[in-house]
Amino acid sequence: MIELDDAGLPGGDTDIKALRSVYGRFPTGVMAVCAMHEGDPVGFAVSSFNTVSAEPPLVSICVQRGSSTWPLLASSPMIGLSVLAAAQQSLCRQLAARNHFDRFTGAGWSATRNGAVLIADAAAWLECDLQDVLTVGDHELVILQVRRHRANPDVPPLVFHASQFHSLTVGG
User: How many alpha carbons fall within 13 Å on the CB side of residue 95?
Assistant: First the structure.
């Protein structure tokens, strides 16, 4: 029999460090979520990205409640999602930094005509508009509709697992 630890029921204590360790056993990709705001790029990195639906084309991300960047992104007509490449570990750290003023220093990016910001040399790109936001626990579950997309199939994606970056081998 597998013995499980209590995740903390209402009224009980939760061992957040242990729970995050369990969550970290699931490898994920890393997305840059970016848009233009008042003439400047704004954005952050997320590892909580999921495909939701093909018809209509929907994806989701989770954003920490209280983020100062999310309201700026949410006000943009379009939001760019870039699947960060294995070679973009440093950029990922920049985009995840608390100081949002330095996030794009030295980064290659371009803005679409609709205000989405796409990171150069990423593994894939999505241009999306905001469909819905649900408050769930300490995060906002954001549903986005994909309007345009492109894959960069020869570029391996950045993978985040057990609090470390990894890469996949592309090709056979």
Answer: 29
Give the closest residue to 45 by CA, choosing from 27, 25, 64. Answer: 64
Count the alpha carbons within 13 Å of 147 in the hemisphere toward its beta carbon.
15
Predicted local confidence at residue 124, as pLDDT? 98
Instruction: Give the pLDDT score at 13.
Output: 67
What is the total residue count of the chain?
172
By DSSP bridging, strand 79-83 and strand 124-136 are: antiparallel
| Strands laid side by side in the 28-29 sheet | 28-29, 158-161, 164-167
Q: Which residues of 122-136 are buried (b: 16+ CB within 10 A; e: fewer)?
A: bbbbbbbebeeeeee
What residues pair up with 81 in beta bridges, in sequence order? 33, 126
pTM of the model: 0.90
Beta-bridge mates of residue 123: none
